[in-house]
Write a structure and sequence with these properties.
heterodimer; A: 176 residues; alpha+beta; Alpha-Beta Plaits; 2 domains; 5-stranded antiparallel sheet; 4-stranded antiparallel sheet; elongated; B: 575 residues; alpha/beta; Rossmann fold; 3 domains; 6-stranded parallel sheet; 24 helices; globular; Acetalactate_synth_ssu (chain A); Acetolactate_synth/TF_NikR_C (chain A); amino-acid biosynthesis (chain A)
Chain lengths: 176, 575
């Protein structure tokens, strides 16, 4: 078993995400994280799904995903073949920051930044690998975290123009 | 007002309701027969149908599941798209079994469901159910429509998706307000979807490679499936088989793509298939799979399936390549084209020793299994096999055989001599009991001039027995053969072989099927003795109109050969 990141290029359509997730559910594959938003091509959306599976199963899942009518293409990658990040937000009581220097030092050490400072609370933002955002979480925890949230992974392949080469073929076919 | 007058005026109008647009879109797709059941949320569509009854014949089944199977039977025999209509809520959920069946057996059907008004969606309204989510895993594509103007494009897309590439079921859910709403109607058929590649281009290198592998073979075997029927590749496949001289075996979905008595047809693959093709699967050096998907009922233990052979796979769906069995040469594309190219690229050869091996194995099965099934000792109860073989002989192998699921299904496929292209309709992938009766009705509408025989067990018959009402009302001619062993025979066989004869919930206490049939105005007879069988079959087949023939067969007869679950194809048991 190995961690894989699957990038899926889709039409923007109600219910399509559900159609994709049932492909994982049916095979008893846990989705560790998922993000969805518009891609570099206007109107085409990109889902990024992280799973841990055997490669042979990942290959089959990717084909099943591509088989769905409104899916253009799906790619799967090992972690070494992509650059990826997650973002975490931490909500802390503002008085903790003003009373001690410790939290400020933690924030500096982790290259995190302050996103918002309100009289009652402060939002800290950290982008990085899951281990890094988790590490910051552990360090801030003793000082009283009010709320914490982490995004799903977003990733970019190290290959040049992975989807665009494919999409130009699609566009050509559409013009025929 | 006279309905016919309204039709004339409405046809000219282009500002019409969503409901009428749906009906006109169906007519534009050359649909002339639909199967369905009315209800609250689909009433505007039924109202529109009222004015188009000449162009669009609606067959009211007795249950929505029956409508889906009828649409499947219609689609499988006619090659056209089967269409179903149902209301929201329970009407829609009753479609699920048929959708799942059509999904696994690649059958082009379009189901249209009514939905509560868009304003009511999500309020747990009366007969509201989220059919789009529910049907997602069992449809090739589905969509909900809340605006009348979106109906024509959705219908066009639905028909294109259902029938192109690997065919499959599509569901369109239309809210009631969209059915009532009026708009300016125009219709454009769909020929292209930018994210969808139904017919992968055939790679000439793959053809060359496949041809080279076939040319080098000493003991090649062809295994073929539904893909040939779906691609309408009768001539291409027969030419391929005859030029190569390679023995060919079928999956139950591929049955009737090559005549049963073709000299190179060596029989049925899989769990209850013939002895020769199963043994030869693990002896061949090249396995050529055409339009089949290596279902577990065909492969047995997949880790011991044709390991010695180079495998060539002609397949339209990329997701099927290397899914169950890893192949050496994949030829993606429509097999009508790939078979034609491959036939041109190969050098004809003869395989006398290999065909001799087939004959040897066929003789073994004849001696150990078939002889007893077709010619049982005089004092034994009637066997299913002898009934089917007599029907086969008397109908000259030309009927459409629609089977349900279980022992009778295996027997019908093993012992009917199919001599006509596209004549077998069965529930292969899903194994849906209750499939045959409604599917046979649909098949008859799909091929009104052919004889349609539904072969059903006493268990499955009672799962959709209410469709006798559809038969009664439509007066179509469907022959119903009930092979009654007063058991759920296949489950009982498994309990016999693998659960030390603990017969748990398989004993059927049946009603008098003749009285039931007569209640529906259907002529019926029951045969319990062998001496009455022959004349009853003649009356059954020559009767003008539907006829139910019930034959009491041996209670505890088992179907052999058999590959037990988890065993390899070469471990096929003859007894």
């Amino acid at each position: 078993m190995e961690q894989f990141t699957i990038s899926i290029y889709t039409e923007n359509m109600i219910g399509l995400l559900h159609r994709v997730t049932t492909i994982f559910t049916r095979r008893h594959i846990n989705i560790e994280s998922i993000t969805a938003s518009e891609s570099e091509v206007s109107g085409i959306h990109r889902y990024t799904v992280v799973i841990t599976e055997e490669e042979v199963n990942v290959k089959n899942v990717v084909k099943q995903i591509e088989k769905q009518i409104e899916i253009f293409k799906a790619f799967y990658h090992r972690n070494e073949d992509i650059v990826y990040q997650e973002m975490a937000l931490y909500k802390m009581p503002t008085n903790i920051l003003s009373q001690t220097r410790e939290v400020e030092q933690i924030v500096r050490k982790h290259h995190a930044r302050l996103l918002a400072v309100e009289p009652e609370f402060t939002i800290i933002e950290k982008t990085g690998f899951k281990e890094e955002t988790q590490d910051l979480f552990e360090q801030l925890k003793p000082h009283g975290i009010l709320e914490f949230v982490r995004s799903g992974r977003i990733s970019i392949s190290k290959r040049m123009k992975e989807f665009q080469d494919y999409y130009s073929e699609v566009e050509k076919a559409s013009r025929l | 007002m006279e309905p016919t007058q309204l039709t004339k005026t409405q046809v000219k109008k282009t500002t019409i309701t969503g409901a009428e647009a749906l009906v006109r879109a169906l007519i534009a797709e050359k649909v002339d027969t639909i199967f369905g059941y009315p209800g609250g949320a689909i009433m505007p569509v039924y109202d529109a149908l009222y004015y188009y009854e000449k162009e669009l014949k609606h067959i009211m089944t007795r249950h929505e599941q029956g409508a889906t199977h009828a649409a499947q039977g219609y689609a499988r025999i006619s090659g056209k798209v089967g269409v179903c209509l149902a209301t929201s809520g329970p009407g829609a959920t009753n479609l699920i079994t048929g959708l799942a069946d059509a999904q696994l057996d690649s059958t082009a059907i379009v189901c249209i469901t009514g939905q509560v008004s868009s304003k009511m969606i999500g309020t747990d309204a009366f007969q509201e159910t989220d059919i789009v989510s529910i049907s997602m895993p069992v449809t090739k594509w589905n969509i909900q429509i809340t605006k009348a103007k979106d109906i024509p494009a959705a219908i066009a897309k639905a028909f294109y998706i259902a029938k192109s590439g690997k065919p499959g079921p599509v569901l369109i859910d239309i809210t009631k307000d969209a059915q009532f709403e009026t708009f300016e109607f125009t219709y454009e058929p769909c020929h292209h979807i930018r994210s969808y590649v139904p017919n992968p281009q055939i790679d000439s290198k793959a053809i060359e490679l496949a041809a080279r592998v076939i040319d080098s073979a000493k003991k090649p075997l062809i295994v073929f499936g539904h893909g040939i029927l779906l691609a309408d590749a009768r001539k291409e496949f027969q030419a391929f088989v005859e030029k190569t001289g390679i023995p060919a075996a079928w999956t139950i979905m591929g049955l009737s793509a090559l005549n049963t008595d073709h000299p190179l047809n060596i029989g049925m693959l899989g769990m209850h298939g013939n002895y020769a093709p199963n043994i030869m699967t693990n002896e061949c050096d090249v396995l050529i799979a055409v339009g089949m998907r290596f279902d577990d009922r065909v492969t047995g233990d997949v880790s011991r399936y044709a390991k010695q052979a180079k495998i060539i796979h002609l397949e339209i769906d990329p997701a099927e390549i290397n899914k169950n069995v890893t192949v050496d040469v994949a030829v993606l594309g429509n097999c009508k084209e790939s078979l034609d190219q491959l036939t041109k690229a190969i050098t004809p050869k003869e395989y006398p020793d290999w065909l001799h091996r087939a004959k040897e194995l066929i003789t073994t099965e004849n001696e150990m299994v078939i002889k007893d099934e077709l010619f049982p000792p005089e004092n034994d109860k009637i066997t299913m096999g002898e009934v089917i073989r007599r029907i086969s002989d008397i109908s000259k192998g030309a009927a459409i055989i629609v089977t349900d699921v279980g022992q009778h299904q295996m027997i019908a496929q093993r012992y009917y001599n199919f001599r006509q292209w596209k004549s077998n309709v069965t529930s292969g992938g899903l194994g849906t009991m209750g499939f045959a009766l409604p599917a046979a009705i649909g098949a008859k509408f799909g091929a009104p001039h052919r004889q349609v025989i539904a072969v059903i067990g006493d268990g499955g018959f009672q799962m959709t027995i209410q469709e006798l009402g559809t038969l009664f009302q439509t007066r179509v001619d469907v022959k119903i053969l009930i092979l009654n062993n007063e058991f759920l025979g296949m489950v009982r066989q498994w309990q016999d072989l693998f659960f030390e004869k603990r017969y748990s919930s398989v004993d059927m206490v049946n009603p008098d099927f003749q009285i039931i049939a007569k209640g529906y105005g259907i002529t019926a007879e029951k045969v319990t003795e062998r001496e009455d069988l022959e004349s009853a079959i003649h009356r059954f087949l020559s009767h003008d109109g539907s006829f139910l023939l019930e034959v009491l067969v041996g209670k505890e007869n088992n179907i052999f050969p058999m590959i037990p679950t988890g065993a390899s194809v070469s471990e096929i048991r003859l007894e």
